[in-house]
Automatic annotation (TrEMBL):
Stated role: Catalyzes the 2'-O-methylation of the ribose of cytidine 1402 (C1402) in 16S rRNA.
This protein's name: Ribosomal RNA small subunit methyltransferase I
Reactions accelerated catalytically: cytidine(1402) in 16S rRNA + S-adenosyl-L-methionine = 2'-O-methylcytidine(1402) in 16S rRNA + S-adenosyl-L-homocysteine + H(+)
Source organism: Marinobacter pelagius
EC number(s) from the headed UniProt entry: 2.1.1.198
Sorted UniProt keywords: Cytoplasm, Methyltransferase, rRNA processing, S-adenosyl-L-methionine, Transferase
Keyword S-adenosyl-L-methionine: yes
Amino acid sequence: PGTLYIVATPIGNLGDLSPRAEKVLSSVAIVAAEDTRHSGRLLQHLGLSKPMIALHEHNERERFDRVLKELLAGKDLALISDAGTPLISDPGYVVVREARAAGIRVSPIPGPCALVTALSAAGLPTDRFLFAGFLPAKRTGRKSALEALKREPATLVFYESPHRILDTLADLVSVLGGERELVLGRELTKTFETFYSGSAEDVLAELQTDPHGSKGEFVVVVRGAEASGRAEAGSQLDVDKLLGLLLAELP
Ligand code: SAM
């Protein structure tokens, strides 16, 4: 059978397509893409014209039969998404899983990924981080998702769209507190690349007053909860209280 290549493409700056990604894209028989029109433009830019299979979240399972047939016929296939690394908040999971189960070689061609790009320049701890993808679109769901992450000590990373960024930041302030440090990466690798950093309430205020603030694509990086500090202070108090009670009982 052929090989299924999982190829990362740029998240904005076309110069970020790796030479290896370009080589693979030009060598495969078929390109499976999330949006064939969008990815068609990338291929055109590379001077390539390839048969394409449209593969999005809703038809992944059904289209897999076609993908599998081509692979079993010995053809190499490249899976790409609209931007960045496939499967990272993008389709492909079913295809990769089923291809592996069918004994097909799946080979990653690494490259841009918005979450790693943001983390690499945010200046928040990266030894442990929790990528939570997109928060729920509705306020109640979003707030309870944030509530569940409130005490997480690892750095938190979210993706957000321009029309929800202000609402999400407002919910972050109300659930995690306005003091929580955050770094917002906007339009990474593109002409209007901007980082906003500071306390959650300051970043929200800055974005609200910036005329271009809520335009573009965003990665939200949030400092994890201060795990030890407060918890220890709390248990210290309990120990003091307990000691007081015990001492009072002493003859
Ligand atoms: N697979 C992609 C990756 O590897 O990063 C992510 C796809 S997800 C559907 C799209 C989201 O990624 C956007 O809503 C935004 O949160 C983030 N994103 C993608 N490109 C970005 C960029 N250039 N700057 C900031 N965020 C970006």
